[in-house]
Amino acid sequence: MADQYALGYLLASVLGLVVVYVLFSKRNGGKAKSATAATTTATAAVNGECRSTNGDDADVIIVGAGVAGAALAHTLGKDGRRVHVIERDLTEPDRIVGELLQPGGYLKLIELGLEDCVEEIDAQRVFGYALFKDGRNTCLSYPLEKFHSDVSGRSFHNGRFIQRMREKAATLPNVQLEQGTVTTLLEENGTVKGVQYKTKTGEELTKFAPLTIVCDGCFSNLRRSLCNPKVDVPSCFVGLILENCQLPYVNHGHVILADPSPILFYQISSTEIRCLVDVPGQKVPSISNGEMAKYLKTVVAPQVPPEVYDAFIATIEKGNIRTMPNRSMPADPLPTPGALLMGDAFNMRHPLTGGGMTVALSDIVVLRDLLRPLRDMNDAPTLCKYLESFYTLRKPVASTINTLAGALYKVFCASPDQARKEMREACFDYLSLGGVCSTGPVSLLSGLNPRPLSLVVHFFAVAVYGVGRLLLPFPSPKRMWIGARLISSASGIIFPIIKAEGVRQMFFPATVPAYYRAPPAK
């Protein structure tokens, strides 16, 4: 019996040791796994595991805090979304474009609750355009009679405007602005899970959210996986700031139909006038060796209004001359779960008409209204399918402004072709007629009447008017031939732009299935 007790005691002791060993091993193994997870988060993120090196959660990541990114951050933050904005440089930008907001864009700014961002930056009100050609000029006013007295265009320093919007977005407790450079979109099985970025101090971090919106501007490094980028660079802007002078028409933008291409003037502060000289092609005269100064003095200066001539020459001699490529890119998205493109990263047009910010702000209104009913955005494929309606709903405003910008630039440029010369002359004379011939095109230009069909009607009305000028009072075979070529030239200008915009989405959006897409069930 004693032997049995001894054997039982031995077995119980061994069993107890085994249990203690197993429990101890599990406990230490868990600690080891936790340590390993903490040191391999970045690797796990690239492989698609949703772990973030900076713990706070976000509903939306916005890459870029320019006009589109800053306005979007405030808009989504105001709707209660947790927004994390990553911007390469949070100091005040210094650009020579993005300085004119059309009245239609200002209305969108009001709709987003951002109208106070044009206050306290010495912004100037804009009531229309003055058009100059060969010593003649005409004044084209915005049709603002039906709107509140505060509604007009605004011109300003681009950087001041952006800083005001960044500051306003940053006042919201659920919006975080961080300076950093996004290097990669993190994907898993075709779904964007977040971003990898480098902080201001050089630290590599990852951030995850159900939706990543890329707004990193015209030089975007991230757009290639989210759209089919077909970037065209038809010309470059040469920018100067004139001081101590006054434009012929106060509170109006000035467009000079010069040779070889247009020159723009508009006031950006109470003491400064922005001048943008369009130079066709991608190569401009060198600034460093004096070729640019010579070009501006000999080719451009004789064509500017006499009221600003002296200031124009004085600015050239000071040497503060800058250049910027004018880029055009139709929207051609690749719908990607977990990600969306906005702003110039998504869609660009020639900046001649100053419509870029209007398109961006209008897009934000469309996206805001689509996202508002959604409480949960974690089902990325379903969200992506739903947001396909964004690409159709944005079309009335975006396609009208895009098409007008591209078409007007080609019409306003000088050409040795006689038919194109007649089209340019007809455009100036048509706008000078007043009435609907003036208010119609200007309402399209200003974003107040975003109707693609109205744009096409006015464009071909200009062409028909040009043919009428040729054939009256007595047609001749040569004039009839030029008239036929004028119609052909007009078609060759506008139809390729419309094709790139999408005929069905532009003119018949109600026939696109995504137009009727309802929010996912809650």
From TrEMBL:
Cofactor(s) needed? FAD
Give the UniProt record's GO annotations in the biological process aspect: response to hormone; sterol biosynthetic process; terpene biosynthetic process
- Specify the superkingdom: Eukaryota
This protein's major location comes to: membrane
The chemistry this enzyme catalyses reads: squalene + reduced [NADPH--hemoprotein reductase] + O2 = (S)-2,3-epoxysqualene + oxidized [NADPH--hemoprotein reductase] + H2O + H(+)
Pathway assigned to this chain's UniProt record:
Terpene metabolism; lanosterol biosynthesis; lanosterol from farnesyl diphosphate: step 2/3
The way this protein sits in the membrane is described as: Multi-pass membrane protein
**What is stated as this protein's family in its record?**
Belongs to the squalene monooxygenase family.
Known role: Component of the triterpene saponins (e.g. ginsenosides or panaxosides) and phytosterols biosynthetic pathways. Catalyzes the first oxygenation step in sterol biosynthesis and is suggested to be one of the rate-limiting enzymes in this pathway.
Task: Specify the protein name.
Answer: Squalene monooxygenase
> What organism does the UniProt record list as the source?
Escallonia rubra
